[in-house]
Sequence to fold (1220 residues):
Amino acid sequence: MNYQNILQEIEEEIQPLYKKGQIANYIPALAKINPKQFAMSIKLLDGTTYNIGNTNTKFSIQSISKVFTFTLALELYGRKLYKRVGHEPSGDPFNSLVQLEYENGIPRNPFINAGAIVTTDTLLSKYKDKSFDNILDFIRIAANDSTISFDKEVYNSELEHGFMNLALINMMKSYKNINNEISDVIQTYFKQCSIEMNTEQLANSILFLANHGINPLTNEILINEAKAKRINSLMLTCGHYDASGDFAYKVGLPGKSGVGGGIVAIVPNKMSICVYSPNLNKQGNSLIGTKALELFTSKTGLSIF
Amino acid sequence: MNYQNILQEIEEEIQPLYKKGQIANYIPALAKINPKQFAMSIKLLDGTTYNIGNTNTKFSIQSISKVFTFTLALELYGRKLYKRVGHEPSGDPFNSLVQLEYENGIPRNPFINAGAIVTTDTLLSKYKDKSFDNILDFIRIAANDSTISFDKEVYNSELEHGFMNLALINMMKSYKNINNEISDVIQTYFKQCSIEMNTEQLANSILFLANHGINPLTNEILINEAKAKRINSLMLTCGHYDASGDFAYKVGLPGKSGVGGGIVAIVPNKMSICVYSPNLNKQGNSLIGTKALELFTSKTGLSIF
Amino acid sequence: MNYQNILQEIEEEIQPLYKKGQIANYIPALAKINPKQFAMSIKLLDGTTYNIGNTNTKFSIQSISKVFTFTLALELYGRKLYKRVGHEPSGDPFNSLVQLEYENGIPRNPFINAGAIVTTDTLLSKYKDKSFDNILDFIRIAANDSTISFDKEVYNSELEHGFMNLALINMMKSYKNINNEISDVIQTYFKQCSIEMNTEQLANSILFLANHGINPLTNEILINEAKAKRINSLMLTCGHYDASGDFAYKVGLPGKSGVGGGIVAIVPNKMSICVYSPNLNKQGNSLIGTKALELFTSKTGLSIF
Amino acid sequence: MNYQNILQEIEEEIQPLYKKGQIANYIPALAKINPKQFAMSIKLLDGTTYNIGNTNTKFSIQSISKVFTFTLALELYGRKLYKRVGHEPSGDPFNSLVQLEYENGIPRNPFINAGAIVTTDTLLSKYKDKSFDNILDFIRIAANDSTISFDKEVYNSELEHGFMNLALINMMKSYKNINNEISDVIQTYFKQCSIEMNTEQLANSILFLANHGINPLTNEILINEAKAKRINSLMLTCGHYDASGDFAYKVGLPGKSGVGGGIVAIVPNKMSICVYSPNLNKQGNSLIGTKALELFTSKTGLSIF
Fold:
């Protein structure tokens, strides 16, 4: 299949959508980004790469970081992790407190904010003040790129405006589902959200999930096969907050979005994909990114279903 | 792969689980079934069949019927259907009223009771008093078996004890999301739930979803390819109520369970599977059935992820 | 105090409010009433009466009937009644299903619809097919007026459009908190809601609650003193759905409203009051009626606080 | 009426209840208090005092402080205050986040924690770093007792374990319903909760609410009559969290409880009452205190209904 042609078709077809959606405005450092951007990268298991658009532009990975911290925590703790964070879709927005209260501080899954904060807390219990370094190292190894880092301005902006996340973490602490100091956990969490990459780096970093846990380009084993499949399943059922069902329905691929405008997705045994466009739909997922992936699976028939 | 050997291994490994779970007890006609039963059927696209256990025992398909009525309604109405029923996981039990109230009588998806009742209502608007006949005919054609029918005793038992479903339908009627007479809709709905089949019949009936909408044994086109993929996606994200995430996580196949003890699942482009065992876990899905499918994908590596 | 003057002042001051609010439109028979009506009656313990406006106009008492059925049920069952219906404010609209689901079919209080339906069910267990006759007789004795009856057109209109109440009663039946046939309970409930009276009749009928349970004009003992106080307390905390706090805050009297546009209130040891005006505020209470009572306690200082 | 005799009868009748209930255990400094204590003070408008039990024992007033801060804020802001905190019963526990999320960070009333925190925030906007001094001064003037102070150990214990309150305040901050620094607001809030008094001091401090806003012993005007009535109404409908209806039903007096074991109540135009006993019922109100007040109104007939 001629993926480059397909990317060009997609780029044309998404043009009318630039005026739709809205940039993430609850973090000032994100609110000032130029919304009219689009980039998409495809990485096959053999390393072949297809790019279109602003694929050199780095952006904040935000919630895409949850895939990496969950991978690390699942590797460390296995099934024990499920006592502290579930693996069911929540049916609610990414920062909802309601379900958390009814369920005594145990978040539904690691891809909503509360669940990702608990996941980061489990890493702090192991890696202490080296936690963020470990997270960053893991991502660098996964992407085979030691230049990846985080954006201090975004990080500070999140720290200053992270009231809802502080509400979540305090609530979970009151239910004894946070074991470390709130300030340590929240700083690590905001740092991981502030990591920046471009679409090709992200496509590289996620390729191991299309290949049973092994980066096929470096042969680095990042997680075992059974766990890699479970992470993919979780991306499919929970990767897009309360639009996860819609994403599975229209795109049909395991994926994870971030409010920075990025979405990663994988086609098992074939490729990883990353798309970027900053305007978000009302569920907080990249509007053009979602459409681009829907067009991609329509044109290629590469849905997992 | 030697599927017959795998079925035998599964049958041995699930033995210790017979004492766990509980039979559906809210419908008297179901409550009296012998819980110590197990059957599993695999049907490849070429028609090869593998059976184990009581594969001649007919049982009530219950919520598995939702797959067929949704297929019919999606074929009839296409996207228009989404105005009346969504396609997001609900994160709640199968009969919850809470979400329905917050969302003004629009059910989250067609695989929870409220959504299936709306789906049946859309069929009544088209087929009037021939609605149940059409549903049954569709299933007979899908399974290529004209002997399939419904169990009158189960049907009457449901009618007498269906208060929660009557609560749901009355609520949706108050939100104007039911267009036909409540008694007509509810009778049709309970009849479809009371259809009985054995595991091989069910595996046959669902095979079209493993083959892009076409029954490969009869070449009958039951729905187009794009829609077949969407039905599969919906089974993955919503097929098991508030255990849908767990099923996707552990089994990794699109599937749909019924409180009668049956579960159907498909491996795209390869096969359909049906398993039966009446005891349910606390989310209302066959306990042994879920475990058997988990063992199946572990042993074969046939997860979609 | 010159109550007639005060009523005249109130009538003048509420004039600008006729254009506000909206008539109950979910029951067609109520929707066609002329909204520009106002009537208010005061009845002192010695029988002195003050009237203003259309005090001869009969209207549907609707939820005001809940006070009478609760009085009857409390007299019959005493504390045992609390096992089936609570006495806490619900904080939710009059017909909410959410709380009912979380609390397993036990309504918060007898003045929301679910609670009143349970109350009527307890009367059916005692009075069988004489239940509505008993309710009507009780009201006739309380008001000392044998001409009081119900409006068949309103009753039929409620029966045809009572889907939300049918949702509530079916849900409670599924939780085994309804003991009689759903159709019997709902018919009795809708009949009691369809009873019609004018403001003076209602002021008479409720006077016993201002006088320790005894109608001071006939010396009829309708309930004992301790229970009368508790009914008053319940009217204060729960008499106006999710505007109960606001009514207590601004008016400061035990009262109960109905969507027919009536509100009754009592000043302990002094008087009963009834006001009528059909347009409702968004919580379903008479907009002008609420304001008239607020003006009344401001002008007279007769709040219980 | 011989109030001293009545207090003695009450003290005898509550004896069997000492083994019931449980001390507040979420704040370590409160958890170590001797649970077997009882004190009750009555203060008539003419200054006559009736005491029984450990009326010299000081205890943490906790949520009773909400009455004083609300009085101060209502005096300062009048109706404008309602934009930031409502006056409806919540129907939920004292620290629930659910309702707050559905209602966009506007707490239901000033007597649940979220509402009291907003109230304190409004005082900080006016009094800046003198806020706590102002609150304490107000209480000293109300009680005519300059020795009243707060308990530093309790304050520090609350600061260390106040995760749920931090969740609430961060959530409201995210909805922009907190205008000052979170740390300033929460410190002031915990200080006011840590104020300690004995039952006679509390009865003195609250006497103004039984006398139209004026302390009858000092003639100090603390708030105007209309506002005093509204504070009383709010205590009746919202003073005891999700047991407010039950308290109104059984006791029939405006009152406010604190998890320190104290309850204050007033009989309009007659007296104030304070009762103390540390063991709490499951809604977080003094178990013996509630019973003592129920006995008091049964024996004296002094319910407002």
Strands of chain D lie at 39-44, 49-53, 59-60, 149-150, 195-197, 255-257, 262-267, 271-276. The two ends of chain D are 19 Å apart (CA to CA). The mean pLDDT of chain D is 95.
